[in-house]
Write a structure and sequence with these properties.
Chain lengths: 268, 202, 221
């Protein structure tokens, strides 16, 4: 019972911008450091130390960027869908901040996944692009992202934009497994001659360990990026409130700037 | 399910894009009240009416009242259909029986009887607004939310409008009317929307 | 309420006959374009016909979706429906149904003409009609979600396409598969079930989402 109350309290606090900002200050640093360490380790390990694939030689190493990018891109969209659901049901405004923060990174990572997929494909299977289950699903994901991006550009009113984005993210997220299933069905009928990722033989540990490190590194990077963007947006929305002004004045004092150089009046 | 008789606004302040538009309102409007809403352009009159009609969901505070007839800048008449067909549709929406006889009587009073079988697209703005007036009267709802109803009306129509509002209030209806030209209705109250105090944009 | 709503929909449908003729005209026109630009493609009764037919159906549906709520939105009738109707949800559902009557059903009826023009074999036409009969309602339903959200945009056509085409994808995949199977004489019962399932799921979910989208659009005015 007590745990239930505590969880509810935590949930409602999570919707408060000020509390969110305070609690994520340490998270951002944590994710940032982890991302740096994991990505550095992962990249070196993947590029230099992991064994070359006996079939594909060294070109398969692009997988160490391609797979994490695709995984995080998809997770970000699902995250947007969940945020959309929470936003529509509980009317938390932070969820819109979350959606806005996930969007640019998600788009870039999807594009990166598509691009690195092509780069991987050319030396390995001879073509830049094949229409199979994975490629089509990832391409559709890109369009889902672009759709929400275009939608947000088209609605100037912030609250309406939030509701529309939440609705579209939710519908899109529900659509993802349906698309995946139907594209896989389609794929079984249009079996291309090229090598499909799902039929890959089991990877030895020397290969999938650096992959795991890279995947974790990408996730930490995404966490760092999304939280940073969210914090920035929170600051900008709350710019005239007292806690933000105090925060900025505190920071300017630390940086040795004069107080008068910052904000004019403290307003509540 | 009985509807409340009064329209109550409790610390109601409409918002748009996070910005509060006017100072909080605390009002109780009983049956027979005619409330004139005044304020500069952009003060939030239309937004307040839309909020009370249920079309605008960003607001602080609360309000409670019977269901309302709303007349905005867009008339809500289908251009391809005649006034009678439009009125029949409105009655159907509310699952009411369409009183054609009453509609024709009102059309006569408003001077548009010869036009009742002409598609609304061929009527002038003023004529369409007269059709809208019939719609308000035919509806059983006890609140009218009118956004600048005097627009495009000639002198005769304006006086008819004032008469209709007066009759409606006399029969116990509540009218909230945003207007730049004063209504000539006896016993009307006036509400001037005041600017909101400074607040956070969240 | 339903009777009044239906009556109005039919009155509009009869008086603005362009809403029925335009989709058909577009479909015929694009068929003509294919016949001229890629004659070899349509000369053989190949399995390309299925894909081309469905893609053209999707585009026709997109064009028709743009105007689905626009008239009512601009005239103010939409907001009146939301305020005055006993059950606004039913009003939306009826509008989707009538849109389907004017687009999807017309396409189904036109299939015996359009299909063979695109190279579809006669054996495949009944299968194509069944697939379209099951699939076009899903297109109207899913499309109404996008139409509801974008009705307030002045140039919302592209955004509508971006939002709605990913939703159309499963219908496209199963639909083309049914027609291909019909052309090859194979059994396509499983695909029929899947398509029917998609349509049913759309029927349950789409009107709510469309109504939510419409409320957002109305608030934008």
């Amino acid at each position: 019972m007590k745990l239930n109350l505590k969880l509810k309290e935590y949930w409602h606090k999570l919707g408060s911008p000020r509390w969110f900002y305070q609690i994520t200050t340490s998270w951002v640093t944590f994710f940032g450091i982890c991302a740096l360490l994991l990505l550095a380790t992962g990249l070196v390990w993947a590029l230099a130390f992991a064994p070359a694939d006996y079939q594909q030689g060294n070109s398969f190493r692009i997988m160490y960027v391609h797979v994490p990018a695709a995984m995080v891109a998809q997770s970000l969209y699902i995250g947007m869908g969940v945020a959309g659901f929470v936003g529509l049901v509980w009317r938390m405004k932070l969820t819109d901040v979350a959606i806005g923060a996930c969007l640019p990174l998600g788009m870039v990572l999807t594009a990166l996944a598509l691009f690195t997929g092509g780069v991987w494909g050319k030396p390995t299977w001879g073509s830049w692009w094949e229409w199979d289950g994975r490629t089509v699903s990832t391409l559709v994901l890109l369009f889902l992202y672009i759709g929400i991006y275009a939608l947000r550009e088209a609605i100037p009113d912030r609250d309406l934009r939030a509701r529309a984005s939440a609705l579209v993210s939710l519908v899109g997220t529900v659509n993802i497994p349906i698309i995946k299933y139907s594209v896989e069905w389609w794929n079984t009928l249009h079996q291309s001659a090229s090598f499909s990722l799902t039929e890959k033989p089991a990877m030895p540990a020397e290969m999938w360990l650096p992959l795991l490190v890279m995947v974790l590194g990408f996730y930490c990077f995404a966490g760092h990026q999304v939280l940073s963007r969210m914090r920035l947006e929170v600051l900008s929305r709350e710019a005239t409130s007292r806690w933000v002004l105090q925060l900025l004045q505190g920071k300017s004092a630390e940086a040795g700037l004069g107080q008068s150089s910052l904000i004019d009046h403290g307003r509540d | 399910m009985t509807e409340p008789l009064t329209l109550e606004l409790t610390t109601l302040a409409c918002q748009r894009g996070g910005r509060v538009l006017f100072a909080k309102l605390n009002l109780v409007l009983g049956p027979g009240t005619c409330l004139e809403l005044l304020g500069a352009n952009g003060a939030g009159k239309s937004t307040l009416l839309r909020t009370l009609a249920g079309l605008h969901s960003q607001y602080q505070g609360s309000f409670h009242g019977p269901s309302a007839v709303y007349q905005g800048h867009r008339l809500g008449l289908d251009e391809l259909m005649t006034p009678l067909e439009n009125l029949a549709w409105f009655a159907g929406l509310e699952s009411c029986v369409f009183d054609q006889h009453k509609a024709l009587t009102l059309a006569t009073r408003l001077g548009i009887l010869p036009l009742v079988h002409t598609p609304c697209g061929k009527l002038s703005a003023g004529q369409q607004r007269r059709v809208a007036m019939i719609r308000w009267i035919l509806s059983p709802r006890r609140v009218w939310l009118l956004d600048e109803p005097l627009t495009a009306l000639d002198i005769d129509a304006q006086s008819l409008l004032n008469q209709i509002i007066a009759e409606y209030c006399a029969s116990g209806g509540i009218v909230v009317c945003a207007t730049h030209t004063a209504l000539s209705v006896a016993d009307k109250s006036i509400l001037q929307l005041a600017a909101a105090p400074e607040q956070s944009s969240w | 309420m339903v009777a009044a709503l239906l009556l109005r929909e039919i009155q509009i449908l009869l008086r603005a006959r362009a809403s029925i003729v335009n989709p058909l005209a577009f479909l015929l026109l694009s068929t003509l374009l294919f016949a001229i630009a890629a004659p070899k493609l349509v000369a053989e009764t190949s399995h390309q016909a299925s894909g081309i037919l469905w893609v053209l159906v999707l585009f026709t549906q997109l064009l028709s979706l743009d105007a689905m709520f626009r008239r009512d939105y601009d005239s103010g009738t939409l907001e009146q429906s939301l305020i005055m109707a006993d059950v606004p949800f039913v009003a939306v559902l009826l509008r989707i149904f009538v849109q389907w009557l004017g687009t999807g059903l017309v396409i189904v009826i036109a299939t015996p003409v359009i299909g063979p023009l695109l190279g579809l074999s006669w054996a495949a036409v009944p299968g194509a009609m069944l697939a379209l009969l099951l699939g076009t309602p899903a297109l109207s339903l899913l499309g109404s979600i996008g139409a509801g959200i974008t009705v307030g945009f002045s140039r919302g056509g592209i955004i509508l396409a971006l939002l709605v085409l990913p939703l159309f994808l499963p219908v496209l995949i199963f639909g083309t598969d049914i027609v291909n199977a019909a052309a090859a004489g194979l059994n396509y019962t499983a695909q029929i079930y899947w398509l029917a399932l998609i349509t049913l799921a759309a029927l349950i979910v789409a009107p709510f989402a469309a109504l939510a989208g419409l409320r957002i659009s109305v608030e934008m005015q």
